Amino acid sequence: MNSFRKLVSTKVSTNVDAAENDVESGIERLLKQLQQVNSQMQAWVSSGGSEMVSHTLTRHQEILQDLTQEFYRLRSGLRAKQEHASLLDDFREFDRSRLELEDSPGSSEQALLKEHASVSRSTGQMDNVISQAQATLGALVFQRSTFGGINSKLSNVSSRLPSVNHILGAIKRKKSMDTIILSLVASVCTFLIFIYWLTNTLIPCRVGVAWSVCNINNVYPRLETEVDKIFMYSTL
């Protein structure tokens, strides 16, 4: 990437040499290899890899995203420099031809000169449109790499969700068990309080009834004796 950056910073000609093609193709090949390695690591992490490998995968994906963005930016800059140099060469050629035609008499040459100027302006406008399209393409590629990084992070989160769900389920089960135990303890305490209340309420009532029965049994013989005495006095 450093060699390609130096090549872009020093490239001013319109000719595409073999060294430039070799460097560009080599960088593209290395980026594809890094993408394949990241895909293999992603598959391994999704199948239950360690947490350390997951962090390493995230770091490698960020590095790949940065390198891809830098490569497309440098390549777009190189294409823009080549197009700018080509436009300058065309303008110099056109200026040279215009001067030659102005020196030579004839209306047909003037018409050709105007036609060439019109074609050159159209070519310049087309070059501007192409450069804008390339800039848009670079932005779309960057967005695609960004969304790819987001998808990989979401995949990492989804791979960790089963363990998180297991922990949350264990916590909910423990809370349910605590609630059941607390309900049982409260029910037993309420039942014991009710039994204690019944015991304290019924025993005094039974004692009072027994005391009344005993008093009746004691009074009844005396009442019979008094009745007999009254009957004897009445007969006399």
TrEMBL record:
Keyword field: ER-Golgi transport, Golgi apparatus, Membrane, Protein transport, Transmembrane, Transmembrane helix, Transport
Chain segments annotated as transmembrane: 180-198
Swiss-Prot/TrEMBL GO biological process terms: endoplasmic reticulum to Golgi vesicle-mediated transport; inter-Golgi cisterna vesicle-mediated transport; protein transport; vesicle fusion
Keyword Transmembrane helix found: yes
Secretion signal span: none
Any one GO molecular function term: SNAP receptor activity
Subcellular location: Golgi apparatus membrane
Chief site of localization: Golgi
Purpose of the protein: Involved in transport from the ER to the Golgi apparatus as well as in intra-Golgi transport. It belongs to a super-family of proteins called t-SNAREs or soluble NSF (N-ethylmaleimide-sensitive factor) attachment protein receptor.
Similarity comment: Belongs to the GOSR1 family.
Known partners and oligomeric status: Component of several multiprotein Golgi SNARE complexes.
Name of the protein in its database record: Golgi SNAP receptor complex member 1
Encoding gene, per UniProt annotation: LOC111452133
